[in-house]
């Protein structure tokens, strides 16, 4: 069948299966219907719940301001789908175009979207992980359990890892007047995501809010009592912290295990796909009927040296799902690239933190507005003479400007005057990431045009 | 024959009834700089949005004065420091945060919504006051008194003092008009300075009183000076109060009057609103795009060179952002000259954007929604007596001076509301 005819048939009566019934999966389903897909649609999700929103779970829900049962994602339109909830996908047969389910059933597809996301990385010592009082926080069920335990309230909560989730949990504890200890391997909270300069501010934020913050230490073990309840955490510096609730927030693991042996290019770092969300097989050949979106996807981004980015960002899941849905039912000439500029937000200790771009690529940072000491600032990250990312503490409204700077490959350091520039912000300083990414000698790519309607990529070859 | 510069034609009073063809002409030169020393005028949606978020663009009155503007409200002129509208961070952020702690979330999330019933009562009362009249001036009898009553209530300014402060407000508002400023003589400037001073002194008396005997109003909160966001000096309280008093009624009056005018020109929308008061939310949002009460922002200066569409705007230039032109930019809005409350994609520039985004937006929205829904419901057979109506001279805060409407009858109010 010629391409156009095939896509017409697909839109009319094709079968689309979406594995993963969370933000990306639901968004894709809605976008498919909005884009005129009239065929059969199946959504498969391993959790028994209808799609719900995760960001509130570590914020409003922990604070008791929202019930974990009431975080359903709003439905933008009727999607007329067959729902298979509470059943995990366990395998994929790409040749036969079938998804295997945990209950033995097989679901055939003409086009498949994989949006299985990530799960919380558990405490690595299984026996300790099973102790009563040891939690992770990723799903609604996790939130219900943790919330119930925090209502008791515990004498002390112990948080392993001071990334965004760990910091938000610590913030919620302090807000509720619960004593909390946070242990972090790096020199400060958020260092892995935002570097040491910003991490130092985050550390002050923790300590000023009464968090017992332990940095530069590892948790060597969790100790239980005779009844199997956790009672203490042991640290690499010899310290012992008595606690009755431990929250393990050591980041996430991609849900790709079910694809082992399928022939898809899937592994611990996610599923590789092209800018149009089509999955690669393990030989590096792009498939034409398997698409990927959301946290589980890794796709090359022209603004960031064509590195394969995998982003655990709410906005990315939405944008990528929309692009994937569009491309699944469009002929190749009509397909769109996923060129979302990474954006992330967090709220903790009463401060709104937001970042755009890829801070971890930054070698240096410059505080172009406000001041670190006041904890109200915009920091700009530079990578090989370009603006590559920006972060704001309580200064969100300026970030659109910096996003544009990233998109157009604006020069770094930022030499021009800005409002509220302080003396400390005149010179760049090392961004201080624990593991700086390797510099590449690649060409420069920028997004140009004044409006999203006339956006185009401009490719400037590198000079010798 | 040489035509007058476009900017002069826009600010000229004769263009007030319909400036939109001129804005269309303006967008053809997205960065317009007509005269040496004059402003750079920006009129396309995405360019305006970009500059509203650009940290190289300053709102500081001192920068504007340095850029050669006849600054009328500088500190030395009136003895009052500039309000947060005319300041950059960090001072802007501090003052706005303190003011907001008495107005909106996170500290007072329900302040505006809790006024809904009271606002509805004021609206009903004003329409009741039309009596048996067959012709009504919707500006003098409704669109002006309503927001004045509300802002007085919110701030804690006695409503009966309105005739007193209106005499001071008018010259201050006139001074915002760029055309007046170009032609303003020394006598006019003195009048404006005097008016701002008088207004400040009048409010100083109230603030002092509220500091002694606090009530449930914003002046009391500001005077108390120990809110969650920090405290203001007395002079800062006064310039904030002057700002809120003026902004609180000089903009909403135009939103309501422009709104009724637009609805009378689109009878099918008026009819739908009468049948379904809930439509007022969409009607007001589309009005903020289609006929924004603040047409342009003439108070920005760039503190560094800015490249825009191939034009370099040199540092220390004045920049005008023509919000009303951006709102009709076909690059952003399909069929932009059509009034269409059913639009799905409606991120208008009516309230600006960035750190100076309209402080009172939630109040303005609620006022306009209640006002238009009530007028639509209670005016039987409303029609314009003259179209276009006479306009106020101001090119920035644009709206009808009078809006004479003939009606068959005014329906009685319903016994129960909210």
Outline the secondary-structure elements.
The complex is a heterodimer of chains A (464) and B (418).
Chain A (H helix, E strand, L loop, with lengths): L2 H11 L1 E5 L3 H12 L5 E6 L36 E4 L3 E5 L4 E4 L4 E3 L2 E4 L3 E3 L5 H4 L4 E2 L4 H11 L5 E5 L3 H12 L3 E6 L6 H4 L1 H13 L3 E4 L3 E6 L5 E6 L4 E3 L2 E4 L3 E3 L11 E2 L2 E3 L5 E3 L5 E7 L4 E5 L5 E3 L4 H15 L14 E6 L2 E7 L6 E8 L4 E8 L2 E8 L5 H9 L21 E2 L13 E5 L7 E5 L4
Parallel strand pairs in A: 1-2, 1-7, 2-3, 7-21, 9-16, 10-11, 10-16, 11-12, 19-22
Antiparallel strand pairs in A: 4-5, 5-6, 8-17, 13-14, 14-15, 18-19, 20-21, 22-23, 24-25, 25-28, 26-27, 26-29, 27-28, 30-31
Helix pairs in contact in A: 2-8
Chain B lengths: L5 H6 L8 H8 L3 E2 L7 E3 L2 H8 L4 E2 L2 H6 L8 H4 L12 H10 L15 H13 L6 E3 L1 H5 L1 H11 L6 H13 L3 H6 L2 H27 L5 H7 L9 H17 L1 H14 L1 H9 L4 H11 L6 E6 L3 E3 L2 E3 L4 E4 L1 H4 L34 H18 E2 L2 E2 L19 E3 L2 E2 L8
Parallel strand pairs in B: 2-8
Antiparallel strand pairs in B: 1-2, 3-5, 4-11, 5-8, 6-7, 9-12, 10-11
Helix pairs in contact in B: 7-9, 7-19, 9-14, 10-12, 12-13, 12-14, 15-17, 15-19, 16-19, 17-19
């Amino acid at each position: 069948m010629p391409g156009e005819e095939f896509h017409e048939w697909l839109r009319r009566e094709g079968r689309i299966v979406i594995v993963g019934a969370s933000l990306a999966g639901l968004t894709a389903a809605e976008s498919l219907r909005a884009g005129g897909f009239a065929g059969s649609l199946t959504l498969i999700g391993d959790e028994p719940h209808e799609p719900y929103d995760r960001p509130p779970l570590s914020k409003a829900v922990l604070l008791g301001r929202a019930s974990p049962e009431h975080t359903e994602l709003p439905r933008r339109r009727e999607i007329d789908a067959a729902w298979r909830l509470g059943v995990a996908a366990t395998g994929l047969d790409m040749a036969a175009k079938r998804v295997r389910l945990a209950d033995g059933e097989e679901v055939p597809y003409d086009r498949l979207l994989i949006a299985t996301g990530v799960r919380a990385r558990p405490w690595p010592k299984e026996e300790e992980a099973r102790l009563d009082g040891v939690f992770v926080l990723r799903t609604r069920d996790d939130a219900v359990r943790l919330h119930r335990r925090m209502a008791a309230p515990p004498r002390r909560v112990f948080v392993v890892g001071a990334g965004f989730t760990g910091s938000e949990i610590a913030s919620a504890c302090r807000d509720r007047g619960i004593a909390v200890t946070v242990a972090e391997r790096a020199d400060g909270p958020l260092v892995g995501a935002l570097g040491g300069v910003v991490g130092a501010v985050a550390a002050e934020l923790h300590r000023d809010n009464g968090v017992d913050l332990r940095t530069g230490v590892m948790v060597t073990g969790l100790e239980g009592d005779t009844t199997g309840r956790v009672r203490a955490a042991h640290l690499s510096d010899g310290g012992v912290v008595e606690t009755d609730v431990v929250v393990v927030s050591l980041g996430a693991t991609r849900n790709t295990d079910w694809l082992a042996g399928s022939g898809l290019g899937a592994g611990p770092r996610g599923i590789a796909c092209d800018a149009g969300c089509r999955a690669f097989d393990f030989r590096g050949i792009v498939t034409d009927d398997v698409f990927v979106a959301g946290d589980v996807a890794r796709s090359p981004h022209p603004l960031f040296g064509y590195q394969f980015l995998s982003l655990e960002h709410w906005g990315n899941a939405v944008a990528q799902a929309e692009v994937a849905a569009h491309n699944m039912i469009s002929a190749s000439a009509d397909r769109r690239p996923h060129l979302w500029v990474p954006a992330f937000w967090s709220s903790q200790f009463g401060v709104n933190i937001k970042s755009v771009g890829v801070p971890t690529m930054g070698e240096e940072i410059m505080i172009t507005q406000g001041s670190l000491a006041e904890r109200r600032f915009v920091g700009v990250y530079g990578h090989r003479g370009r603006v590559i990312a920006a972060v704001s503490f309580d200064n969100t409204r300026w970030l659109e400007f910096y996003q544009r700077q990233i998109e157009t490959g604006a020069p770094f350091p930022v030499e021009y005057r800005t409002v509220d520039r302080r003396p400390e912000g005149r010179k760049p300083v090392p961004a201080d990431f624990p593991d700086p990414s390797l510099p590449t000698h690649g060409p420069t790519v920028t997004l140009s045009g004044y409006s999203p309607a006339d956006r185009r990529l401009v490719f400037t070859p590198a000079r010798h | 024959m040489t035509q007058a510069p476009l900017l002069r034609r826009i600010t000229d009073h004769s263009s007030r009834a319909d400036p939109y063809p001129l804005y269309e002409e303006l967008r053809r030169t997205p960065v317009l700089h007509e005269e040496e020393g004059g402003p750079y005028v920006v009129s396309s949606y995405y360019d305006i949005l970009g500059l509203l978020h650009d940290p190289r663009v300053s709102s500081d009155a001192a920068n504007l004065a340095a850029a050669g503007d006849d600054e009328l409200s500088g500190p030395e002129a009136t003895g009052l420091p500039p309000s947060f509208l005319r300041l950059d961070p960090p001072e802007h952020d501090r003052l706005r945060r303190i003011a907001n702690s008495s107005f909106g979330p996170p500290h007072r999330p329900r302040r505006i919504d809790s006024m809904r019933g009271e606002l509805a009562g004021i609206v009903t009362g004003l329409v009741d006051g039309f009596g048996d009249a067959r012709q009504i001036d919707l500006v003098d009898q409704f669109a002006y008194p309503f927001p004045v009553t509300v802002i007085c209530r919110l701030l804690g300014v006695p409503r009966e003092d309105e005739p007193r402060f209106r005499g001071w407000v008018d010259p201050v508002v006139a001074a915002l008009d760029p055309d007046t400023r170009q032609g303003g003589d020394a006598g006019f400037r003195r009048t404006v300075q005097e008016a701002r001073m008088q207004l400040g002194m009048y409010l100083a008396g109230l603030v002092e009183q509220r500091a002694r005997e606090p009530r449930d109003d914003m002046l009391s909160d500001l005077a108390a000076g120990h809110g969650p966001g920090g405290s203001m000096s007395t002079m800062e309280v006064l310039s904030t109060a002057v700002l809120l008093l003026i902004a609180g009624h000089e903009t909403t009056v135009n939103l309501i009057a422009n709104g009724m005018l637009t609805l009378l020109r689109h009878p099918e929308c008026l009819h739908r609103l009468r049948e379904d008061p809930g439509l007022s939310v969409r009607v007001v949002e589309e009005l903020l795009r289609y006929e924004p009460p603040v047409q342009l922002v003439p108070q920005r200066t760039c503190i560094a060179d800015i490249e825009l569409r191939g034009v370099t705007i040199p540092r220390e230039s004045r920049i005008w952002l023509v919000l009303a032109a951006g709102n009709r930019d076909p690059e952003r809005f399909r069929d932009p000259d059509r009034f269409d409350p059913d639009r799905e994609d409606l991120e208008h520039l009516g309230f600006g954007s960035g750190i100076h985004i309209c402080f009172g937006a939630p109040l303005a929205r609620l006022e306009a929604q209640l006002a238009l829904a009530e007028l639509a419901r209670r005016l039987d057979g409303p029609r314009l007596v003259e179209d276009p109506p006479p306009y106020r001279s101001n090119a920035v805060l644009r709206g009808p001076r009078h809006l004479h409407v003939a009606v068959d009858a005014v329906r009685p109010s319903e016994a129960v509301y909210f």
